[in-house]
Design brief:
Elements: E1 2-4, H1 6-18, H2 24-31, H3 33-51, H4 60-90, E2 95-100, E3 106-111, H5 113-120, E4 127-132, E5 140-147, E6 151-158, H6 161-177, H7 188-209, E7 215-216, E8 219-220, H8 222-250, E9 254-256, H9 264-289
Parallel strand pairs: 1-9
Antiparallel strand pairs: 2-3, 2-4, 4-5, 5-6, 7-8
Helix pairs in contact: 1-5, 1-6, 2-4, 3-4, 7-8, 7-9
Amino acid sequence: MWVGSPADFQRLLRLVEKQYEPLIPEHVVAETKHARTMLAMSEASKREVIATPLLNYPEAAAHQAARIDTLDSDIEDEKKKVEEAEAEASQAGRVELSLTGNENERRTVIGTSAELTDYLDGRHLESAEFVAPSGRIRNHSITLRAGRSNGLYARLSSNDAKWCIAGFSEIADEVAKQMPRWRFIRSGYFLYPLYLLSGGIALWFLGDGLGFYPSEGGKFTSAGSTNVGLVFLIGLPGLAYWAMHFTQKAIPAFQIVPLGKQHPGRAVITVLGGSLGTIALGILVNVLSKPFVG
């Protein structure tokens, strides 16, 4: 479970970008190698033309000047290609975002940690996948999968084990900072027994008060036994499961909470606490209102 502000999420994406910073220089060299080779060839050709003695014919100087002009134009073109390849390669560590929002609307966006955080701010997010790098840095990938139902999942893949271990450790530490202490309230291991117990107590006292479990001589009648079976063996498990599912849906396992707002989980905790308190108070009043036999 991950809950945080836009600044918290930007910090996480920035950490993903950081993993690629040591790889960028080598990547830039590799991605601009062809463009730099073509530039060097054009510059070498110009030097060769300049160094070549003029032949003894009237148009020789004009031909040499025209050739130099052509090579100068080629050199300028190759320089632009180098700059473009360098600019593209230097941004290879950016993150690609694929998200699903309201009504299964799908979008794909590529940007920096700041750009993606701004893009997500205030949007309803059902699920999203953040993949780095967006460029062609091979054999080093990071995937973050986030969703209201499944929380946040991180996967690192590389042929460099040290890079994977170090990156995963940093990302795991950052994710852990935004895991709320009350995340247990979303767990089925907590919710289902809670609803079974509280629901069972509530249904017992409610049914008992309404005479739904008739008994004679301290034993249930046939109708009473049937009603108890219907309520506690069939109705209660289904009701507890529905309540658990509803609570989990009401508490997103992943949410970027805008500044000034609170996560729905806190509201659900308040409601749950109030409901359980009301049930406990009702039981206490019911017990105390019955006459003591002495």
